[in-house]
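Following up on my earlier message about iron/sulfur cluster. Here are the inputs again, as you asked, copied directly from the submission form:
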Amino acid sequence: MRYAETGFNLEIDLTRGNIEKVATDPRDTELYLGGLGTNAKILWDRVRPEVDAFSPENLLIFSAGLLCGTPAVGCNRTIVSTISPQTKLMAFSMMGGFFAPELKYAGYDKVILRGKSPDLVYLWINNDKVEIRDASHLKGKGSIETAEAIRKELKEPKAQVAAIGKAGENRVFYASIEQGRSSASRGGIGAVMGDKGVKAIVVRGTKDIHVAQPLEYMELCNEVMEYIQFRNENPIPGVMPILAGLGSPQEMKVHDEKWHTENFMWGNSRTRIKDFWTDEIAREWMETLDKARTRLISCYNCPMTCGATISMPGLPTYMMKCFTKLTYTMGAFSDLDFGLRIAQKATEYGLDGFSAPQVMAFALELLEEGILHKDDFPGMPEDNEGRFYYLLDMIVNREGIGDVLAEGTYWAAKKIGKGAEDHAHNNIKKHEQLPLKLSMLNPIYFLMYCTGEKMNITQIEGQFPQAPYPKKEHREKFCEDWFHVPDEKFKQYFIDWEPRGENSMPFYPTVDMCCDIVDWQEKMHYIDDALGQCAGLSSFPLKPPYHIHNYPKFISAGAGIDMDEESLSQSAKRYRTLVRAINIRRGMRRKDERPPEDHWKKRFPELEKELLDTYYKFKGWNNDGIPTKESLHDLGLDYVADEFLKRGILTDGEDSPGEETLAEKKTH
Ligand code: SF4
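Thanks, got it. Here's what our run produced:
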């Protein structure tokens, strides 16, 4: 018997209209867990590096995490993996909500789409009955509108629907997949779904999921619930409100936006408005949010209510959580009322709320700089809000300049030329990042920005405080109940971290400490993404209920796989390395691993080089960021090493870390 997982994937060939239920190999679960881990294995095995995002040979994988569908609190993530049209690398975007557990209850761990449907379709997965159905009547409809129409059509009010809007249909490179209470936004995965001709995946499941040791498992779940309650009653003192508690940053509850509005950049990620947050604005924004927010809501099996339903006068209700509350507002130099109104339209269109406003602000900056001209924007209103609505429509419909902007700032700048590249300044690996610009280099974040392959910095951080506390006694106090650390040394790292002086940034934490800290933070995120656990209860907040000490017990009692901290760390390292291997095989190298040039004012090139050199070595990668033959062997990934050797990515003499990068060698 398979525990926690169903042991079956649904394979759908859209070109042929073929549907297959395929039994999976339990050994793969032992090696790569599930979710992101097994997605990476499938992409490595089946998608050659020559395959483009919009090729029929690209796969689009919807995976429930390994523990989704079990009673584990907050375990509800669907991990959607494919090749991104924007980065050309592996995209793995997560969505919460209810889709993943429903898929498990229908009897599947993953839905794997290949090929392309000649006509727009949706998939109806109703336990064992799976159909590809005509969706021509849904063409051009919004994502929420689509979900409602399908539920009505099928007379299945409980069906879970993951749908794209017009942005996905028109292959906008930052199109999202929307799913009621959540969305998978990063990497342009909605564009791949649109390219495959799939408007929605609809699922209803009523079967059971078995766990290996039910009593032990329920005890673990109860401990987690008790700890959540304790943490909710005891927020962490001394940190900003959004970091003090659990869950995704509680933007739908928080009224005080002083920190975001005065520290994050406005417009095209360039303008800081230091005295923005006045009493009058605070009052106005509080009234706006209070009126708009109809209900606080949670994902499946979670008490945290991180999201809210938003109803703006005259507009249909939609759901919002997290920082998208402010991205349109700040991109357009406007107010919260505007941000909440335009987000309704953008959600129906199905767009990544981080990238879309930045692309629009970038276009307006090009207009101001004379790189684009009035003629490029025929009929555009004069006011900023009107211009944002205009650009939103142009991009989603791929009309005129919108067709170029639909490919994100990196590719649009290349097409526009005339110096436009200098204005696409906030990208990592060709993908727009949060508009945060700081002063002093933070060595921990430098490494995370450079080497993160999730394309979203906020989903790599967590576990270790973002900055030192002002006084040693505060830091010591913080460490008192910090049992989450994998090793006691992390406490000392934090206690000795001073805001000023010798033990302050950028030279403290030291390079070696930074490697340990980044590795721990990243590991926790990768574990979450394989298990399907929401980062909001695990890798993202400080002192979360799930951590490296109880996760092995969850896997052992839940999935029946014997696991301890060491073997879990080794598994996570295995599929984390496999994600890197996929990207390396697709051409990613050290030259791609850099934060936006203007992310920090004070940069330290020698230290940055040392950080990257040391971290690569620490991870078992050579100086170009390529996993070495030896490290691949230690992880049981000899098949990756063989492929690297065959393709000349590694050569027998070059697989250990050297003094210079392969790219540098080639220029000699
Ligand atoms: S913590 Fe928040 S985002 Fe995470 S599962 Fe719970 S409600 Fe959803």
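One observation from looking it over: The first helix runs from residue 26 to 32. Hope that helps, and feel free to reply on this thread.
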